[in-house]
Structures
1.
Amino acid sequence: KDSPAGVADDEEVFLVMAGFGLDGEIMADTDEKVKEAVGWVAYVLAAFKKVSGRGFTAEVKAQGSEGVVGARSSDVSKHARAVIVGNCGTLQGGVELMPEAKLDDGMLDAVVLAPRGAFGWMSVLADVATRHRAGHQRLDRLVAAGLTVEAQRPVEAEIDGDPVGPHRALAARVIPSSLVVRVG
C-alpha cells in the first residue's frame, strides 16, 4: 500500500506528525529515563508541567485543501497553544486527536488548539474524547495537501516525536506514494 509522507520545511520528512507550541514543549521536556520506565505516560507527565505555558499567535494556511472542517475559510489565525500537522491522527496511548486523518488519502490534517484556562482545556479534552468533528471554538481542524504555520515568535517544535528546537514557521506538504508497505 502506498502512503504519503509529509515534508516539513523541505528539509525534514515526517511520517506521523509535526507540532508547534505545546506539542514541541512536551517532546523537549519528556525525560528519557521516565519514558523507559512508564512508556507513553511520560508524555502525559511532561504535558502537566507545560499545559499552562504561554501561547502564541498562529496563522495556519491551507493549500490544495478542503480547508477548515466545518468553516467557510481555508485559513485559521488565532492565539493558540499548539498547532499539530499530521498524516496520522492518533497520539501515543491511542488518543485520536485528528479522527478523520488517513495515512493514504494524500492529504495532511491539522489541529489548532486554542484553550483559555482550565475550562478551555476541559472543553478541548471533551472534544477530543468525543471525536467531535467541527464547530468547536477552542479547536480548529484543517485538511489540505499543504499547510503553512507561522508564529509571531519562535516556539518549540517537534517532528515525529523528536524535538527540533524553537521555530517561527513550518511549511508542510505531501509527497505522494513516498512510503511503500509490503505485506506478504
2.
Amino acid sequence: MMISYQELVRTFLNRRGFNQVLPIEKIDIIITDDAVSEVDKLALQKTRVKLITV
C-alpha cells in the first residue's frame, strides 16, 4: 500500500519519533493540507519555517 506525501506529513507531524532526520533549523518550508493543528501552526510561527497549506 502506498500513501501520499500529504498523508505522510499529516500522519507524522504530531508524533515524536526516536530518530531525527535533521533539526528544525534546517527546514525552510513545510507544505501540508489544512488539517494541521493550531498548536503546530503556533509552534512553527516561533521558528523560521514557512508553513504552506493547500
3.
Amino acid sequence: MIADEQLRDVLEFALAAAQEMERHKMREAVPRPLQPLLKFKRLNRAGLATVRRVVEEDEAFRGALHQGLVAGQEREDGEGADAVAMLWLGRPEGWEDEIAKVLAAEAEQKRVDRLAIEERSASKRLEAADKHVERLRAELSDAQAVLVSERSRHAAAEQRADLAERARASVERQLEEARSETRRAKQQAEAAHDETSNQRLAAGGEAASRQHLEAENERLALRLEEALRARVEVEAIGQHVPRPAQRVDPALAVATEALREAVKELSDATMLVNAAISGVTAREAERATRQRPVRRAQRVPVPIPGGRYGDDAEVVRFLVGVPNIVVIVDGYNVAKTGWPDLELAVQRDRLVEALENLVRRAGTRIRVVFDGADVVGWTTARRLVNVQFSEAGVIADNTIREVVSALPDEQPIVVVSSDRELVASVRALGANTVGSAPFLVAIR
C-alpha cells in the first residue's frame, strides 16, 4: 500500500491542474470534491486523502492528468516523482510494483544523501575537535612548562635556604674562633709587653718573641680575610634568593651580623698584636680600640660579574669603569711591585704617570697615598691624580683606612694594594679591593 505522503508530488500536481482549469474558466471540468481545495497552495493530510480519492475514482480526470503529464515530459522515462506520477496516473500492468521500486530507490538515494551530509558534518566536527585538542595540548604544554619553572624556582629557593643555614652555622663557628683568637692575642700582647718592659728576655729571646708575634699577626690577617670573604658570599646569597623566602632572610641576617662581629673581633686582635710588636702596651692598644668610634660598614661592595673577587685584570678594568668610583692606591706597595729595580723617587714618578694616563683614558677619580711627610723636592700639585703623603709617624695604610672611613657610605671605593692587613680592614668598611699586580697589568 502506497502512503498518501509518498504520492504528495503527483497529488499536488493534480490540484495544480485543477487550479489551472479554474483560471481558464473551466470550472465545470474540475471534479466537485476538489473545488473547496482550489484555494490551498499546499495540501494537509486530509487534503491529500481527498485528492487521492477523487483521482482514483474519476477515471476521466485521471486520464486527462496523465495526458497532460505525458505532453509536458521531454523524456519518455522520468525519475523520482515524475516516474511515480506517470505510473500512478497511467496505471500500466504491474504499475504498483514499479512504483514500489521507484519509491524504494528514492528512499535509498535519500538515505545515501543523508549519510553523506552526516559524514560531512561529522568530518567538520572532528576537524574542530582536533583543533580544540591541539589547543588544549598547547595549553597543557605551557602549563607544564610553568609548573617545571615554578618547581625549579622552589628547589633553588630551598637550596639557597639550606646554603644560608649552613653559612649561618659556619659563621657562628668563625665568630667563636675569632673571639678565642682575640683573647689569645690579648694575652700574648700583654705577656710580650711585660717581658719587654721588665727586660727579662735576652736579645735572642726578644727577637724570637717578636717573630712569633709577627707570625700571629699574619695568621690573624688571613683569618680576617677569610671572614670578609665569607661575609661577601653570604650577602651574595641574599641578593639571589627568590622572594618570598621567609626561611632564608632571618638566617642571612643572623649570618651577616655574626660575620660583622667576627670582622671587628679579628680587626681588634690584629691591632693588639701590632701594638705589641711596636712596643705599645696591650692595655693602651685595647683602650684605643674601645675609644675609637664603632663604625659598622654600611657601604656595599660593587658586585663583580661572574662572582669573581677582584684578583684579575678583567675585574680591575670593570671596577675602574664604574661611574663615580674612587680608586685609592697604596703608593709604594704598587710602585715596588711594578718597578722593583728603580729608586723610590723614580718609582713614585712612574706610578703617578701611569695613573694619570688611566685618568686620561677612563676619567677615573684616583688618589695615591705614599708613606712619609718628609719627602724632599716632591710636589702634590698635579692636575689629574690626587697625591697624598702620610703624616709623620703614620704609615700609609692607616691614612688609607682614614680616607675610606671618611668617604660617604654611598660612595663606591676600590683600594689597590697587596697588603693583606690593609685589604682585610678596608673590605670590612665595604670597599672593593684589587691586587697590585693585576692592577698594573690592567692599566698598562
